[in-house]
Amino acid sequence: MDRPVVSIVGRPNVGKSTLFNRIVGRRVAITENNPGVTRDRIYEEAEWLNKYFTVIDTGGLEPFSEDKILSQIRRQAEIAIEMSDVILFVVDGLSGVTATDRDISNILRKSKKEVILVCNKIDTPKTPDDIYEFYELGIGEIIPVSAAQGLGIGDLLDEVVKYFPQNKNTEENENIIKVAVIGKPNAGKSSLINNILGEERVIVTDIPGTTRDAIDTYFTYGDNEFILIDTAGLRRKRSISEEVERYSVVRTLSAIERADICILVIDGEDGITEQDAKIAGYAYEKGKACVIAVNKWDIVEKEDRTYLEYERDIKNTLPFMMFSPIIFISAKTGKRVNKLFEIIKSVYSSYTKRVTTGVLNDIVNEAVILNQPPTDKGRRLKVFYATQIGIKPPKFLIFINDKKLMHFSYARYLENQIRNNFGFEGTPLQVEFREREGQN
Question: Which residues belong to the signal peptide in this entry (predicted)?
Fold first, then answer.
């Protein structure tokens, strides 16, 4: 990463995720009073004093726990520490120093990184004398804050930006491609991201629902910069029992909204399901480009044309996403994963494509000549003029004489003509029809 990286570490339930949300300026990480809610590294971009940097929220550290998931949380936090320029060591000002705080401070001192000791839950402007006991951790100066109330955050960030290395880029980057990996639980989303990145980026277990937050990873592929967003698998509503899982669903839907492209991961063993269709429908409604990745292809029993049957089933179940490319992969073995990003780059090109007004009108006029507009009670629909008014997804405005004469099948015909002539693989198109004044 060429941006400064700030990671937030500490034992469970000291307010790390609340501080993370406060720094990035919106509620990204799930915050609950139950320890262990944050399991993975969660990345988000933040800005202070016109300096842009990456913030990493980590799961609560319990250095000597042998629990399977807690040990993976510890590994995720260790990776965050390794890649950080500045570490915010968060302690609970109400609880005082604990044995776990001492263990973590020993780990951080060995890291040789810049560490700022953040004493959280100080909810009054006057600093209580009790916080001075944290000097025994040997970290340095203490910065008191209340992440919940926003007290002291500005002073903290003033200190953070002082430690940014001179060789790091703190300028805003508007060219990052945001890719959300979506799908039902246990389809292999986290495994796919780990394969792409070549590291244990997100916790992978055989327990459905391991990923609870929408987790961002910044990386480069060729000449392009990406943010990969791993999301909690969307369960059926009746399967959502824990309150924290309800938050996870909200995070997943939010991740889709802020993505440019969605990779819909389908479990190759299960085939396309009703749940997959609902998830795909949400991405489509939000106007997102989409690539369909059929995972676990290495263990699917195959005959001569199995992949053609899969493609047919997918298109029958997702007729509204006929434009989306389909790729058969194995996140476990890495089969065709390298081809996935070539497809993503192509789809992003379609998602941001602009068509010149002159060429667009040539295509629309030719389509009208080839297939005359419908009539109603002796009046014929007239198509006057077309122009592109936006991207992400491509949006078109077509002026006509009377919207009542525009049948949905003819609207679909014009949309298909635009798509067929200009490509637009993987992206939905939005076509709006507007009456031109004085032409009814």
Answer: none
281 annotated binding-site participant: no
Q: Which CATH class is domain 357-435?
A: alpha beta
Residue 62: band (very low, low, confident or very high) from pLDDT cuts 50, 70, 90:
low
110 labelled ligand-binding: no
Q: CATH 3.30.300.20 occupies which residues in the chain?
A: 357-435
Whether 440 has a binding-site annotation, put simply, is no
Per the annotation, does 48 bind a ligand? no
60 annotated to bind ligand: yes
Which residue spans of the chain are classified as CATH 3.40.50.300? 5-162, 177-351
In the prediction, which pLDDT does 77 show?
A: 64
pLDDT digits (tens, 9 = 90+) for 161-192: 999 988 887 876 667 888 988 888 788 887 88
Gap between the Cα atoms of 115 and 85, Å rounded: 9
CA distances from 15 to 35, 108, 354 (A): 10, 18, 45
Q: Is 168 annotated as a binding residue?
A: no
Instruction: Report whether 59 belongs to an annotated binding site.
Output: yes
- CATH no., domain 5-162: 3.40.50.300
Which of 376 and 161 is assigned the larger pLDDT?
A: 161
* Residue 190 marked in a binding site: yes
**Domain 177-351 is found in CATH 3.40.50.300:** yes
- Which structure tokens are listed for 317? 């179940």
The model carries a pTM of: 0.63
Rounded distance between C-alpha atoms, residue 45 and residue 61, angstroms: 23
Which residues lie below 8 Å from residue 55, measured CB to CB, with a gap of 6+?
6, 7, 8, 20, 23, 24, 43, 44, 45, 46
- Tell whether residue 233 is among the known ligand binding residues: yes
Judged against a pLDDT cut of 50, whether residue 426 lies above it is answered with yes
Residue 99, annotated as binding a ligand: no
| 61 known member of a binding site | yes
Q: Is 295 annotated as a binding residue?
A: yes
